[in-house]
Amino acid sequence: MDDLHIVPGPGIPGGLRVPEGELAEQFSRASGPGGQGVDTTDSKVQLSLDLGTTTALSEPQRQHVLDRLAARLSGTVLTISASEHRSQRRNRTAARRRLAALLREAAAPDAVRRPTRPTRGSRRRRLDAKRRRSETKSFRRRPTAD
User: Fold this and answer.
1) Strand intervals (E) in 9-91
2) Tens digit of each residue's pLDDT (9 = 90 or more) over 49-77
3) DSSP conformation letters of 82-100
4) Is 31 left (phi over 0), alpha (psi -120 to 50) or beta?
5) Tens of pLDDT along 30-44?
6) At 92, is the pLDDT very low, low, confident or very high (cuts 50, 70, 90)?
7) pTM of the predicted model, to two decimals?
8) Is 106 helix (H, G, I), strand (E, B) or coil?
9) Rounded Cα distance, 128 and 142, in Å
10) How far is CA 122 from the centre of its chain?
């Protein structure tokens, strides 16, 4: 196959191009249920990229991506598996698409949280609900001897 191209987006304004030599593919037979198609061979593709040594990312991008994908990494290697198709070629394409989407999402900057205040209406509704709940509970009390 060719180099992996990732379209421009937030955090990667010029897009990314991961050289073919940095992508490692492993092929194996996919496990799955038996049944009518039990005698057919399904393929599984594992696509790996070492984020620590790739030339596609700048140093700030690399740190950001490593931080964002830390739970999915084995060391600094990101591995994607694809076995949803019977065809090896289609699984390779699916794995590359998934890797590109994951890198694009991980390279995007974190959303800035802008603190907000509750609106006047939401405060009024909250207090009204508390008042109604209090009245409901007060009706459950033992009546006073008046």
Assistant:
1) 16-18, 23-29, 43-50, 73-74, 77-82
2) 999 999 998 899 999 999 999 999 999 99
3) E-SSSSHHHHHHHHHHHHH
4) beta
5) 766 656 655 566 788
6) very high
7) 0.71
8) helix
9) 24
10) 33
Query: How is residue 21 written in tokens?
Result: 């030599």
Neighbours of 54 (CB within 10 A): 19
Please state, in angstroms and rounded to a whole number, the distance separating the CA atoms of residues 134 and 138: 6
Start-to-end CA distance of the chain, whole Å, equals 89
Q: In which residue are the tokens 């006073």 written?
A: 144
Beta bridge partners of 48: 24, 79
Q: Are 93 and 47 in contact (CB under 8 A)?
A: no
- For 43, 45, 93, 108, the CA distances from 87, given in Å and listed in that order, are 7, 10, 10, 32
Helix spans in the chain (H): 59-68, 88-107, 120-138
Could you give the CA distance from residue 80 to residue 45 in angstroms, rounded to a whole number?
8
